[in-house]
Design brief:
heterodimer, A: alpha+beta, 7-stranded mixed sheet, 14 helices, 10% strand, globular, B: alpha/beta, 7-stranded parallel sheet, two-stranded parallel sheet, 12 helices
């Protein structure tokens, strides 16, 4: 009898069998090491399950031994598209299309598993519980930031003293912090979809051009990234902004082969430069256009959506800072434990934590390394249909072609630049295959962002809204537009025009 | 003087073009259609880089232009924010970038509006732009954005000239647009409907005529205005009641001006159903407290508005379609009465309006 080959893939959920790289695909590396997966996927799954339990009791579909909301196939992280679409059906007034538009680039949702449908009473009570959860976001984020800072200080102290005991202490204490960070990220990410749908519906009823105005008004008042980029400029190796120079999500970004997938744009804050003219915010301008109660309702919704957007970015930054603690910590502990420095990325965090008491766990790394090498040779589709049950990775064929869409309103005209280029003297449009908070320092000086990847609530969409510049995502070939080409983008309609070079 | 007028095919733009030609300037007009009733028409778009001009035309414009007037964008109180900001914010940014590329530029003038001040509180002079005011519609906000951008553009000699409602016969001929702005109420009055005005309309209307407004812009180019802000209105300061009375006189109609707050409420609630922009109700109240002394910033001698331009406005509303080729009847321009006048029983004024095609844009 031949032994079953070692694989790092998670088991396919028996009902929800359509997966999508979705939001992961935009910003996370194409492939993640098993260690990073255990620090990202596993707590994300726990956080989503815990949220589902709080909202709807213990729904059978969100329990059990399978990963429900995430998956790891061919070393690539996936969201379970079918599970998230099912989750959307458990919230009144929400459609699966809202979820796919918000985070999965508008792909077609998979068919509903009707037998698991949530009852109306559960739906309504779940929605009210969600609102209650949202009230706690602010205090939870503040407490979490304190905890993250404590872990960073703990790491500084242990590293400076060269104390393995201190390092193990940090390892032990960091895990609950990471879980809370992902739990908050899941909460804010999930809540934005129904909040946005509610906002659009109410606005349509209350005023002319309601949908368009929702587009203009939904922006965070202040994002955390500016503060972090300013902190990064101090070059403090243990400071809160230090993680910005590393890969997001991948903690083994100094180790082959994972460093090949962990490409970051290293960006320093441009000190002394002036941002564009600050005009009165459209939300303020709207104040006099409506009767008082309507105006208050409109502004309250806009502020709520903006705050949750800001909370989403804040929680993500805290998750990334916590991952950075692991990034610094694990190689040091690996030396203390006498483990081969090449092997630790192939263990999970739980195995690594238990190594001190069970050194035999290190033996799991070598076969996984072989499995990962094989997996990395297999191309993994963006959207995955695993309903065949035969272990073959088939792409999920969406009927709708990926559509380019405007996700931050306004008109931007300028010359194309990539995130690695120096800023030109004239207005510039940042064109890239995907974008994340790493380009935040460029945004005050850009006239717009054009990206191949992205959805309505992508991180880059939220950032662009915060800076008041237009953003179009889903534009095929954005990264291949030659720098210096003049383009015009419409962040409301998604229209992109490559303007005649001869006009220059 | 080599003048480039961006948006010069409109109501005020063509008046400015005429004033510049009369002053001996060479005039080029950039518009999306590429045609201009006065001056040389160029096809372009303020929202595009380099105004959408290309090749030899661009090179010629760059090399020769010494003066620029920015008066682009339609007047529309019901536009969505995207459309307004696309024109007045993105368009102005693009236009200002273009101005920086003109080596021979001596002076540019942005045609602004008193509407940029929205519902400002306290006395307003040329210095104020944002005083914490509330805006009644996105058009006002768009005009505020445009003037804000102009004021913050410190490296270009560009100033702003503000106007209130501009009346008078359309310089291009034909019947003036009554779709938006103060003229939107004319069909309503001429059809015999009552209009509520606070205080019976005995407050300044800040109107002027298109001819004197154009002359002021021309003066701003030549004086020059520098980076300052001017405001121009008819120094006679006709009240709103006088404006309505004079405009209606040409039709033999006495405007039914009443002071009845319930009517204001009804107009607000039901106005849109009957084709009247609800925002119009807001303009039936006194505007902000504008200091009449702002006129003194304009070097004398001041231009003199056409005598009897208010009655001429009324007479122009009786004119058949004339002038600009290719313009078609735009039904929304008929405004409230225009639509209401589909009914046969509304009298001679209504029928005449219904039968009269219009040309042109609205008046600020």
């Amino acid at each position: 009898m031949s032994a079953r080959p070692v694989t790092v893939d998670t088991d396919v959920h028996p009902y929800f069998t359509v997966y999508s790289a979705g939001n992961f695909g935009e910003v996370a590396p194409q492939r993640l090491s098993p260690m990073s997966w255990s620090l990202v996927g596993d707590p994300m799954e726990r956080g989503t399950r815990a949220l589902a339990r709080r909202l709807w009791g213990r729904p059978a579909w969100a329990e059990g031994g399978y990963y429900v909301f995430v998956g790891y196939f061919g070393c690539r992280p996936y969201h379970n598209l079918a599970a998230y679409c099912h989750l959307s059906r458990a919230i009144p007034g929400l459609e699966p299309r809202d979820v796919t538009d918000a985070y999965f680039e508008g792909v077609d949702p998979p068919p509903e598993v009707g037998a698991l449908r949530t009852g109306r009473v559960r739906q309504v009570s779940g929605a009210s519980m969600l609102l209650r959860e949202l009230r706690e976001i602010g205090p939870r984020l503040r407490a979490l930031e304190e905890n993250v800072a404590e872990r960073e200080w703990g790491l500084r102290a242990a590293m400076t003293a060269g104390s393995p005991v201190g390092l193990f202490g940090v390892l032990r204490d960091t895990r609950p912090v990471l879980e809370e960070a992902w739990a908050l990220h899941i909460l804010t990410t999930s809540a934005l979809v129904p909040l946005g749908a509610l906002q659009r519906r109410v606005y349509r009823r209350l005023m002319r051009h309601g949908s368009e105005i929702a587009h203009w008004l939904s922006r965070p008042r202040e994002l955390v990234w500016d503060r972090l980029h300013a902190a990064a400029a101090t070059m403090d190796p243990y400071g809160p902004g230090n993680f910005l120079d590393s890969s997001f999500y991948e903690v083994a970004d100094g180790t082959a082969p994972w460093q090949d997938y962990a490409v970051r744009h290293k960006r320093a804050s441009t000190a002394g430069a002036q941002a564009t003219v600050s005009l009165l915010d459209p939300a303020e301008a709207l104040r006099g256009m409506l009767p008082r109660w309507r105006s208050q309702t409109v502004r309250a919704l806009a502020v709520s959506v903006g705050e949750v957007m800001a909370g989403r970015e804040h929680s993500k930054s805290l998750a990334m800072r916590t991952l950075h603690v692991y990034r610094r910590l694990l190689p040091q502990l690996c030396t203390a434990l006498g483990l081969d420095a090449q092997l630790w990325p192939y263990l999970t965090i739980r195995e690594f934590t238990d190594l001190a008491t069970d050194p035999g766990l290190a033996g799991r790394a070598a076969p996984r390394m072989q499995a990962c090498r094989a997996a990395l040779r297999t191309p993994m589709p963006e959207h995955l249909d695993l309903s065949g049950g035969d272990g073959v990775f088939r792409p999920w064929l969406s009927d709708a072609p990926p559509a380019q869409r405007g996700v931050a309103p306004g008109i931007g005209v300028g010359v194309v630049m990539t995130p690695d280029d120096d800023l030109p003297d004239e207005p510039a449009i940042i064109a890239c295959s995907s974008a994340d908070a790493d380009i935040a320092p460029l945004l005050p000086f850009a006239a717009g962002v054009l990206s191949e990847r992205g959805s309505e609530l992508s991180h880059i969409a939220i950032l662009a809204r915060e800076y008041g510049i237009p953003c179009v995502v889903g534009y095929p070939g954005a990264a291949t537009v030659p720098p210096g080409t003049t383009v015009s983008i419409n962040g409301s309609t998604g229209e992109v025009n490559i303007l005649d070079q001869s006009a220059r | 003087m080599n003048v480039l007028i961006v948006g010069g095919s409109g109501y005020l733009g063509s008046g400015i073009a005429r004033a510049c030609v009369n002053a001996g300037a060479r005039v080029r007009v950039v518009s999306r259609r590429g045609t201009a009733p006065i001056g040389e028409g160029l096809s372009g778009d303020a929202r595009l880089p380099r105004l959408g001009l290309a090749g030899d035309v661009l090179a010629e414009v760059r090399a020769q232009t010494t003066h620029v007037v920015l008066c682009f964008g339609p007047v529309s109180w019901t536009s969505a924010p995207g459309e307004v900001l696309e024109t007045h914010a993105a368009g102005m940014r693009s236009a200002l970038t273009f101005l920086r590329e003109l080596p021979a530029l001596e002076q540019a003038v942005h045609v602004s509006s008193l509407l940029a001040l929205g519902r400002a509180q306290g006395r307003v002079t040329n210095r104020e732009l944002y005083t914490g005011q509330q805006f009644r519609n996105w058009y006002e906000y768009g005009k505020y954005c445009a003037e804000r951008l102009v004021r913050d553009c410190a490296d270009v000699p560009v100033g702003s000239v503000r106007f209130g409602p501009i009346l008078g016969p359309d310089p291009r001929g034909g019947r003036p647009d009554t779709g938006y702005g103060l003229p939107a109420v004319f069909p309503h009055l001429l059809a015999g409907y009552p209009v509520h005005l606070d205080g019976g309309g005995d407050f300044p209307s800040w109107v002027t005529d298109v001819s004197s407004a154009s002359d002021v812009v021309c003066t701003a180019l030549t004086a020059p205005i520098g980076r300052g802000t001017w405001t121009w209105f008819d120094p006679a300061m006709p009240t709103l009641r006088e404006v309505f009375t004079e405009v209606c006189r040409a039709w033999g109609v006495v405007p039914r001006i009443v002071e009845a707050r319930p009517l204001r409420y009804l107009t607000r609630v039901l106005g849109e159903r009957f084709g009247l922009a609800p925002e119009l109700v807001e303009y039936a109240r006194p505007w902000f407290d504008l200091d009449p002394g702002v006129l003194r910033d304009i070097p004398e001698p001041w231009p003199v508005p056409e005598p009897d331009y208010l009655a001429a406005t009324g007479r122009a509303l009786r004119e058949p379609a004339l002038g600009v080729a290719g313009q078609t009847l735009r039904e929304p321009a008929l405004g409230v009465a225009g639509r209401a006048l589909r009914e046969p029983a509304l009298g001679v004024a209504g029928r005449a309006l219904r039968e009269t095609p219009v040309v042109g844009k609205g008046m600020t």
